[in-house]
Write a structure and sequence with these properties.
The chain is α/β, with parallel strands linked by helices and 221 residues long. Helices cover 40% and strands 17% of the residues. It has a single domain (5-219), classed as TIM Barrel (Alpha-Beta Barrel), CATH 3.20.20.
Amino acid sequence: MGRRDVRNICFHGIGTPGRTIDDDEARYWITADEYLRILDEVATWPSTVISFDDGNASDVELGLPGLVERGLTATFFVLAGRLDTAGSVTTQQVAELGRAGMRVGSHGMDHVSWRGMSPDVRHRELVEAREVIAAVAGDVTEAALPRGQYDRTTLRSLRQLGYTAVHTSDRRLATAGAWLQPRFSVTRDDTPQTLASAALVPPPVHRRAALELKGLLKRWR
């Protein structure tokens, strides 16, 4: 049996941020109208999985209603250190996501890079953050890598801690059932059409091989 491709689409912020953000983060914020247009597009795709990173308040205020209206589900990767702070989801909202049939995963504690972490930082990001989120959402079995950055030590730790799936930002197709799940992160430059071109049109063999090699090198850093 051959591999089955999965299209992982990741949103970050929708509408107007409720906290101060830098230029790099700003490129991952899209308008509410564009979010709905993209959602309508990806809802027609085969084997598509939706997720949200960073735990912004817009996840619940704007993201969740759009999903519910279309009968869609998603995984929300929240930051434990931002819970109940300005512009971020509250503990009550995280519980609301669960009641709405959504899944909740960990994006760590402080949105720091998961590459080159010290043992203390690694424990805070992978263990303590998970415990904080689980106290609100129940079992946390999946994680998303902040800033898409990782190394083999981080991946080994995540496996040892029993995470069942880890989501990257490597912007390529994923394989169903694989432990490491690349995702297409939506930016303000994306449209339904550009995402469709990236996620639905198979890349040339040499391009796909290059993307997979890049991911392999990141895993062995």
